[in-house]
Design goal:
Length: about 650
Amino acid sequence: MSEPLRQMAADLARWLAPRKVTTVSDWSDEHIILSSKGSAEPGQWRTSRNPPLREPMNCVGARSDVRDLVLMWPIQFGKTAVLCNALAYTMCENPGPIMVCLPSEVARDKWVAQKLNPMIDECPAVKRTLTSVASRDAANTRTFKDFEGGQLYIEHAGTPGRLKMTSVRTLLVDELDEFATSLSSGDDPVAMLDGRTSAFPASFKRAYISTPGIRGISRTEQLWEKSDQRRYYVACPDCAHEQPLEWTGLHWTPDGSQCWYVCRDCGVVIEEHQKTAMIAAGRWVAENPTGRMRGYHINCLYYQLGLGPRWIELVQMWRDAQNDPAKLKTFINDRLAEPWEDPSMRAVKHNLVADRAEPLPLRPVPAWVLAVTVGIDTQDNRLAVQLVGWGRGLTCWPIDYIELPGDPALEDVWTALTDLLNRPVDRIDGAILRVDAGLIDIGGHRTEAVKAYVRRKLVRRLMAGFGAVANNAAPLGKGKLVDVNWRGQMDKRGVHIHQVGTVAIKHLLYSWLSSDADKDPGDRRIRFSDQLPPEYFGGLVSETYNPAKNRFEKRRGGPRNEPLDTWGYAYAATHHPELRLHRYTKADWDRREALLLGTVGAAPAANDSRETSTQSPPAPAAVDSRGTSPKPARRSGWGIGGGNKRGWGE
């Protein structure tokens, strides 16, 4: 066969071969050329330059079964690059009708001039798909592009007419939180956009990309709450513990001249130059696997070197914003990619909390209380003890706050503690509760006395712990052995010391108290008896968060903070490996309630367990929660289940 015929045969075979389906990231690495008009690093696109972009981009590809996704990202991280690459790929590899929507006409025109037109000029693959590149051709206007196999509509959400009478298979939305709450017609712009894809029920793609706005009304936050809530986990260079980088994990010197990140598991210092390798080896982890759509959240700590501000520059921005609410909102929205909530709305005052106390006795406890944990703070001359009851969803009932006088170096105070914690807790319906787990502070001057008491195991599931240095530590860290045997080896039967994420727990407590302000008593997360001592309420909110120093501080002249510390230890005790109340499902709570009522095997009551009942069931029985707890799950990133926006909620 002659050379011309061989070439013709090769061309024919290539033409007849089925199109090779590729991912958005691989296609972009081969075809996308960045223009100097809109990129700090013009030239060939490289996904490896910013690895977290790979998975979200690929969700828009033809090989992905993802239909809806939301990106809650900071500025300058590549939000628009994801949109543009997804658009170019779809036009060339998976053609069909596409709509790109921006919040306003001005934003649309800027995007066309700075992003779309340079991409068409620099990328031959995109230019070849266009039916016409002539500026006077109706097939190539500022807001409409006709290409092989599809059409591109570029709209803004300013008027209802722009969002009607168009059916598209792919919808790409940028800066979602800038959209109007409603249009002049009264329609919701996002609902109208979603309706544009209804003609393609089996193959549509919808991507919403934005920094968030104000908490509670942010459209991006609302979509994120419905999603599987993926965060980018990286491994600690020292202990290999996987974790997402969070602002609370960044520490700096008092003058802000140096900063570093702290691993929340081992406490080792991580320098910024290490993050490049960490990010390259990182992965997206879904923290809410049951979510209805795919969601991605990331923050400014992940900026690659050369593609955004350095950590020390971000620290300076944060410090400069502390006395300026406008700057602080901008930083939280644009850099942390988190919804803004006015700090004045979150303020918690002890007199307001005390006003929520209900005219109910401390004991017997309400019928919705299903478990009890204890937190103990150690002082040189006393033990502060708080018993806390927990209901479904970790609804909280402080049962008692007691101070036992005596030097912990002596035996008397420990005898009184043992007697207190081993007493049964009566419930109003006749059921009997016992302490399921507890945590005692091992800090201070009585460390050896605390270890000796925990070693004796006189109270069920009593742990020794201390406040973690890292602000982003999990509520309860993995226990570490501190005892050695006669051979000098670690004694596996000895005392385990746990670090407690006190900062995160205090944030959680204050958020619960704040959100309870406008709720009816029966709907509150934390309910109080008016029989609690008055100083309890002041001590519970005795500290305030200082964002400039990134830590909690005691109020000047305020009450002692033992009620706050002991509540935190009691909450950490709910995470005991044999208890894990924070991971309880409805079935787990139902089983625990059935055991309390002595009705194992019977159907659980249909009424809300939080309703207080005066009827006593037959044969009340104490619960051994070893039989009620689910099998401990394998330890994962955070070590907690569910999640509010920071991962600390239930």
